[in-house]
Each structure stands twice: as C-alpha cells, then as structure tokens.
C-alpha cells in the first residue's frame, strides 16, 4: 500500500509537473503567436505603405514620361523651326547678295547715266550758247551738236572720205545713242531710194572687222557681210548695208558744232 501510495504520489507530481510545463509551453506558444501576429501586422502595414509608395512612384513615372514626351515634341518642333529659320536666313542672305549685286549694277548704271547727262548738258549748253550760224558753217545742218553736210555729187567711198577731209571734216560716224534711222530722218527729204556713204569700212587687210573712221568698232544691229567686194558701208532708207568700192553715192560729212574752227583728231583715219 505504501508503495502504491508512493507511486500515486509520484504520478501526481509527474502530472502536475507535466501540466505546469504544458501550461508554460501553451503560454509561450500563445506569446509567440501574439508576437507573430504583431509582426505580421507590422509587416502588413509596411507592405501597404510600400504598395502605396510604389503606386505613387508609378504615377510619378507616368507623369515624368508624359513630360518627357512633351519635351521631346517641343524639342523636335524647336529643331524644325530652327531649320526653317536657317533655310529662310540662307534664302534671305542670297536675296540680299543678289540685291547688293543689282544695287552695284544700278549704281554703276546711274554713274554712267550721270556722266552721259553731264556730257549731254555740256554739249547742249555748247550748242545753245552760240547762234546756229556760228555753230555750223553756211550750208551745214546742226544735228545732235554736230554739223552735217550732204553732197550733191556722187563719189566712191575713198573719194568721199577725201572730200570730207578737205573740208576739215570726216565721213559721218554714228556713235551712241545715234542710229541710222535717226540720221535718215534728218535727210528725210531725199528720195526713198537715195543712198549716202557713211564713215564705216571693213578692215579686211588687218583684222576683218568693221570700223568707223574714228577707229571705234561697229556695234550696230544691222548684219554686214564680210565679203571682198563689199568693204564699205552706206545708208539707205534708214539702214546700213555693205557696198562695193567702185560704187558711187552721195555722202555725208560731219564736223564739231562750234563757233571756232573745229580741231579734228589727228591720224585716226589718214592711213585708210
């Protein structure tokens, strides 16, 4: 009985010890569960905060991408505008250079016109400052500050040239702005088919170029054929045409309109 009692007491103590351990283990497990729950709650809060932060970051990233795309479009527009501006500037520069070239040509033309105007004013003043009878000898006609004389007899070109030189004059020369048509209007009372020698000849023996007796080259619009038997030019019905050396026509002499004896250029046509 005593042994059984001892065994019972031992079993009771063992059960009490096991109960105490179970209770302690249960409390520890409950504490661990509460700690785990607390940690899960804290972790959940952190995850929620991270998700919210991630969503905000994604939204901010979308805004940044939209702003970047807008900036790219603006940059492209700016580059296009800059290129168009460069093209327009180059075009304007070319136009400016062209206008400067035209302005230079206009200035040169203006200077030439002013020079011609001064020359014309001088000639006009000279022509109008003296009576016509003093500007041209008797029998001569005043035309464009020149004195013209038309022969009544007919000679070949060389004899006509010599006849003019004997009168201290020369065969008529048509410088700018004269034309054969304007000169013909002066002698317009002549017959329609009348022909006059003028001071134009073909330097066939030297350079085959039509020249005036003052040494200047012919720059008219009439076509003058360079043929051996047509070395001299005559005027007929307001036009110039080549003629042969043996042909005989009336001729026109010219001299400077001045009340004084004109001084002709020495040696310009004496060897023709």
Continuous helix count: 4
- Overall 3D form: rod-shaped
- The average pLDDT is 80
Query: How is the biggest beta sheet arranged?
Result: 8 strands, mixed
Task: Walk me through the topology.
Blueprint: H1 2-128, H2 132-135, E1 141-143, E2 146-150, H3 157-166, E3 170-171, H4 180-186, E4 195-202, E5 210-212, E6 232-236, E7 239-243, E8 250-256
Description of the molecule:
This protein is about 55% helix and about 15% strand. The chain is built from 4 helices and 8 strands; from the N terminus they run H-H-E-E-H-E-H-E-E-E-E-E. Strands 1, 2, 3, 4, 5, 6, 7 and 8 form an 8-stranded mixed β-sheet that branches. The longest helix is centred in the N-terminal third of the chain and has 127 residues. The radius of gyration is 60 Å and the shape is rod-shaped.
Short descriptors:
272 residues; 8 strands; alpha+beta
Brief description of this entry?
The protein is α+β, with helices and mostly antiparallel strands. The protein is built from four helices and eight strands; from the N terminus they run H-H-E-E-H-E-H-E-E-E-E-E.
């Amino acid at each position: 009985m005593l042994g059984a009692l001892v065994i019972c007491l031992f079993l009771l103590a063992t059960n009490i010890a096991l109960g105490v351990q179970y209770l302690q283990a249960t409390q520890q497990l409950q504490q661990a569960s509460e700690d785990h729950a607390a940690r899960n709650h804290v972790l959940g809060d952190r995850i929620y905060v991270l998700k919210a932060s991630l969503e905000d970051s994604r939204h901010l990233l979308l805004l940044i991408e939209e702003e970047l795309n807008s900036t790219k479009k603006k940059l492209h527009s700016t580059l296009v505008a800059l290129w168009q501006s460069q093209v327009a500037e180059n075009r304007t520069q070319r136009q400016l250079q062209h206008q400067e070239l035209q302005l230079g040509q206009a200035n040169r033309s203006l200077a030439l016109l002013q020079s011609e105007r001064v020359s014309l004013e001088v000639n006009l003043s000279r022509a109008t400052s003296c009576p016509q009878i003093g500007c041209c000898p008797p029998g001569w006609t005043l035309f464009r500050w020149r004195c013209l004389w038309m022969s009544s007899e007919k000679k070949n070109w060389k004899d006509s040239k010599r006849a003019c030189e004997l009168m201290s004059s020369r065969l008529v020369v048509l410088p700018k702005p004269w034309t054969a048509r304007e000169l013909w209007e002066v002698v317009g009372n002549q017959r329609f088919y009348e022909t006059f020698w003028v001071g134009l000849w073909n330097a066939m023996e030297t350079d085959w170029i039509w020249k005036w007796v003052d040494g200047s080259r012919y720059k008219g619009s009439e076509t003058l054929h360079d043929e051996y038997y047509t070395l001299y030019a005559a005027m007929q019905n307001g036009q110039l045409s080549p003629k042969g050396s043996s042909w005989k026509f009336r001729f026109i002499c010219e001299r400077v309109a001045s009340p004084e004896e004109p001084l002709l250029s020495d040696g310009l046509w004496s060897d023709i």
